[in-house]
Design goal:
The protein is an all-alpha fold. The protein has one domain (4-168). The protein is built from seven helices and no strands. The protein has helices spanning 4-25, 27-37, 42-65, 74-97, 116-134, 146-164, 166-170. It is elongated, with a radius of gyration of 18 Å. The mean pLDDT is 82.
């Protein structure tokens, strides 16, 4: 058994849990983002604004807390993969409607605008969730040696932070002194 599944599922779980709890704490930001995206009909924005944070939080907790076992992680992993794939499709539509940018992502992971990187992040999260569910092989924190648990938790945190901050990192303006260095300029 490897640390692959818990690291992948843990990273997606952490990202969804942070996004969901942020949306629960600041629901106006999500509602404003949905309105500015202009994709959903007006009547659906309130139910989505209420339901989405609950789904994100529940899936995040399930991915982090469900006791692993052969196939036990598959249902929440598939749910997370489908949710993230839906995010990717939705953000792709937002990007097509607002190609110049300027609309907030409203993802609960920062204040970066919707860009192609936000779409890539959603696709990456879907792939991580699916791969984690497919590689689930009965790995549990209680039956593994502590170094293996430490590696899995560390990998999950690094993957989660890297994935969650991807759009914000790409939105950082280029430093003028670095623009002439080969390999640094965009």
């Amino acid at each position: 058994m490897s640390v692959l599944s818990p690291a992948l599922l843990g990273s997606v779980g952490l990202v969804l849990l942070v996004a969901g709890t942020t949306h629960l704490r600041r629901p106006a930001e999500l509602r404003d983002g949905l309105t500015r995206h202009g994709v959903l009909p007006g009547w659906s924005r309130r139910p989505v604004g209420v339901g989405l944070p609950l789904v994100e939080t529940a899936l995040g907790l399930l991915l982090l807390l469900v006791p692993a076992g052969v196939g036990a992680a598959a249902p929440p992993a598939v749910g997370a993969a489908l949710l993230c794939a839906a995010f990717a499709g939705y953000l792709g539509v937002v990007l097509r409607r607002h190609p110049a940018g300027g609309v907030p992502c409203a993802c609960g992971l920062g204040t970066a605008p919707v860009t192609g990187t936000a779409v890539v992040r959603a696709v990456l999260l879907a792939v991580l969730a699916l791969a984690g569910g497919l590689t689930d092989a009965g790995w549990t924190v209680t039956d593994r040696p502590w170094p293996e648990v430490l590696v899995a938790v560390s990998a999950a945190v690094v993957l989660a932070l890297t994935t969650a901050t991807l759009p914000a990192n790409r939105a950082v303006p280029e430093h003028p002194q670095l623009s002439g260095i080969p390999g640094v300029a965009r």
